[in-house]
Amino acid sequence: xxxxxxxxxxxxxxxxxxxxxxxxxxxxxxxxxxxxxxxxxxxxxxxxxxxxxxxxxxxxxxxxxxxxxxxxxxxxxxxxxxxxxxxxxxxxxxxxxxxxxxxxxxxxxxxxxxxxxxxxxxxxxxxxxxxxxxxxxxxxxxxxxxxxxxxxxxxxxxxxxxxxxxx
Length: 167
What we know:
The chain is mainly alpha-helical. It has helices at 2-30, 41-64, 67-85, 93-142, 161-165; strands at residues 32-33, 89-90, 148-150, 156-159. 14% of the residues are buried.
């Protein structure tokens, strides 16, 4: 099962990379470039830094291994890529406002869903951990055999009831 998930993630990342390449190529082939004098350097720098942060953050998002989060982050990245590219080209409003907005908003929704899934999963794991810890403590205390629990430095952490009664 884990191998299948890794293979699926690998395919997903290849598709994301392909989407970035296709978007970049299609954008600059489809739309006329602005003259250099018309470029807003400050806007290019700020949007470039935002896009760089989003791309670098993708490395960490992938490590979380949450599909909705990865897909959402990919859509946000594509939306911000379009926002960055529109500084260099003359394109219809649909592409630089509507499409960008749709990608970023749907990406944010998926990111929220991904974080929600992670939070619910963490709550379940904590609940299970507490139950197992309680069961182990109950078993430890109920054991008729005297048990001493020690730490890594051979210090006594806990002594069960049966051991306390043995003299």
